[in-house]
Design brief:
The structure holds two protein chains of two kinds.
Chain A: H1 6-13, H2 22-34, H3 36-61, H4 69-84, E1 91-94, H5 99-118, E2 131-133, E3 142-145, H6 155-159, H7 173-185, H8 189-197, H9 201-210, H10 224-233, H11 237-246, H12 251-266, E4 272-274, E5 277-279, E6 286-287, H13 290-297, E7 302-304, E8 308-317, E9 320-328, E10 334-340, E11 344-346, E12 353-358, E13 364-369, H14 373-380, E14 383-385
Antiparallel strand pairs in A: 1-3, 2-3, 4-5, 4-11, 6-8, 7-14, 8-9, 9-10, 10-13, 12-13
Helix pairs in contact in A: 1-3, 2-3, 5-7, 5-9, 5-10, 5-12, 7-12, 10-12, 11-12
Chain B: E1 2-5, E2 8-10, E3 16-17, H1 21-40, H2 43-57, H3 65-81, H4 84-102, H5 109-127, H6 130-140, H7 145-152, H8 156-183
Antiparallel strand pairs in B: 1-2, 2-3
The chains are: A alpha+beta, B mainly alpha.
Chain lengths: ~375, ~180
Amino acid sequence: MPHMDEGRLQAWLDGERGGLTEEERAEIEAYLAENEDAAALVADLRAEDHAARDLLGALAAAEPDIPDFSDIVARARTLESSSAAESGPARRRLPLSWAASVVLAVGVGWTANEVVRRDPRVVAPPVPAAVEAFGSGATGDVILADPVVPTAEGTTASAEGTPPPESTPPAAADAVTAVPRGVAVAENVVAAEPAVREVEPAVEAAAERRVTRPDSSEPTPATSRELADRLRSTLTAADVIESRELAPRGTELEAIAAGAAAIDAARIDPVVSVDGVRIDPIAAWRRTSTDAAAEALGTRPLRVEGLEWTEVAVIAIGEASVVRVAHETESGERVLLYQSRSSLEAEEDPAFAQLSQRHESGLALLAVAPFGLEGLEALLGEISPIG
Amino acid sequence: MKRAHAGAAIDRTGERVKTDWEEVYRTTYPEVVSFLAGMLLDRDRARDMAQEAFARVLGHEADNPRGLLFRTAANLARDEARLVVRRKRHLALLKAETDAASEPAPSPAHELERKERAARVQDALGVLSERDREVLVLWNAGFDYDEIAARTGLSKGALGTTIARAKKKFMSACSAREETDAAHG
């Protein structure tokens, strides 16, 4: 009988939710009946289960009074009214104070759109035109049309940027998720301006100071990253902090911070092409399991040994599937390993080193990291399947 | 009438009656907050997000209201965790929360003890890698391996090992924190 590792015993202990088949369970039980060491290990694991649950229960035990249920009902009504306010595609309003983040996000979107507009091969996220002005700004709101009706579970909705209700403190999610919208809606930027004009003067001034649209006479930058970098060069974290200190007016400045986060998000990934078709860096990669990634690739996804992998994401471009395994170094640098059955290449970018190779499994690999080529070569020497 | 799950009732004819979300709320709120606090390491945000999760599910019929609720909460937490700013704030928040929880409060001694214990637990969760923490919290909330695998990107076959490892690390971090606190009186 094969050695029974701790992981399988844990899965057995977890019963039905451990996902073992009847045969596997029977095999483990037979093994435990004959093997005292394994039985002792199970006893330890069970004790650890109880201890861990008891400790984690302390978090709940420390929870003070439960807020009145009527608060929840009121909140649910707010959610309902905000999603039902418009017919057709679900729409949402951003509070006036959030317009600043929209300015920034739209700025990033506008610049990214330059890439989309000038290169029809670029794959934009599957989001329809979304930003429009709300009248002449009488309410001061900006409405984003949401392509997906919010769901209770929030997965689809929030992944696509469903906002927190108005009673929720501003979260950077709005600005971050607004970026891909910006790519698709860049043509509406001018239309959005009247609403933005209603932003309080101080915020408007701050936003205008920091967001500079490229002049039409300027040469077209090669990548959205370049443009995002340009924006970012005028809006640094220090600026945000300084602004907060000078005028700590909460939401408005939070919006600026969120805008900075949006720009950060836009600059995280390089521009990668699969079979010559560029994948926009802020396109909708879908986080997935390694099993699903293996199905998409026809083989187990690969990782860099010695680094902690943090996320597996997939995107389908035509008939090609591309899997992206993100890793993090100890110093927090992000190492991306793109893999596909189709050919992969990344645009040259001074911020990243990139290296391509064909793996013995037949996968095309493209590694991208924000450090030297030498270090990247060393990392690529240690590739292994996940799971 | 028998209960299928908390808040979801079926009558004698086997027909489901309206989900009693108020009951689910009363019995599950602290658990949802602790689940989210474990995921986010930010108790105030966890409270707000728990209310958001309840508000989202309210009015929906569910065979397993608790399952729907925790899935909703997990989705909200996952989206929150995507934020770049969250990572940057993480350590500062953890420290601030721990400090706040350790402050002598004008409450009975056992209240203080509970808060301190919760702070230790939250601190210990912060020692785990993001993925180990997520797996542990999802496991503790009762998610099955299929769902944990889908949410974390881990292979289902590797989950048992990850859970066992995360438990050990977590308890070891709790013990270390407890010893440190005891040493400091």
